[in-house]
Please model this.
Amino acid sequence: MEKKITLDIAKQYYYVSVPSSAHQAIFSSVFAYDALLNTLSQQQDIELLGYCLFPDGIHLLLNSQSAPSKWLEPCLMQYNQWHQQASGVGGYIFNDECLKQVLIQPKYLGKALKYIHQLPVSKKLCTSSEQYLYSSFHDYMNQQDTLVKTERILTMLSPHNGQRVRRFYDYMIAYEASALNNFEFGNHEYYLAYSEHSYLTKARSSYETQNTEDSGALHLELWQRCLRILSEKTGLDESTLRGIRRHHSLPDAHFLLAWLYTEEAQGPIYFASKQLEKDEETLRLNINSIPMHHPALYLDSIRQLWHQETPVV
Model:
């Protein structure tokens, strides 16, 4: 696949990569690195297992007790506000469109951390991982304390407490070019994940079920309103807009309907998923692709029509 589906599941391990926007420097001074780590430490839903920080991107390995979408964007925004105050430079410094969020099966945490620690070597910033200052390598060597949780991965590398740091050093310092190949894209053919099929199946089954009984009527009313507005705009009937039939001029009409419902009407994606009989991951991916497949002016006209017919409460 050209683009894999990003999973957003609670109580999972993730590798998160966020590049800078338009070649802006994420860190304006040496104090900025501490500011970002401090911001991460304030997030109650995560445990930081490893990191490597560059002026043009940040790389994190962590355990997230809630879905990453609930805390990641606010966390980046919090640091961005600090950066603006400290540097006097405005604008958003992160490129959210190129953010990668790879689900990591626990038994591959060591490989994921090794990948992160070897990034400075692959970028030719140093000849050995231990030479790069802004990474969690030094936490694992007991040379600094940036609130990284080291015990889990050290225990995986060696069951003997006295040998853990030495085993960690030997494992991390041995450069493997193959370990860097396509890791950020994950090894799963469909999902952005570094895991086995069986593990992913179990993880996806843990999605919290949504309680729709109280708000079902409201969601249905909102859905019907979106159907009516889009039918008026496109001249297509309900069957075509729901994807039951396809029209040559607008084959993705059902995804356009889901885009209007979730993005403008602010309806829940699980309801759109149920109405269109599509899984949430596939639907979210196609909703995100709508701006790439339709002119901005066309989408703006649909937005205007929605807001014209929707009373302000």
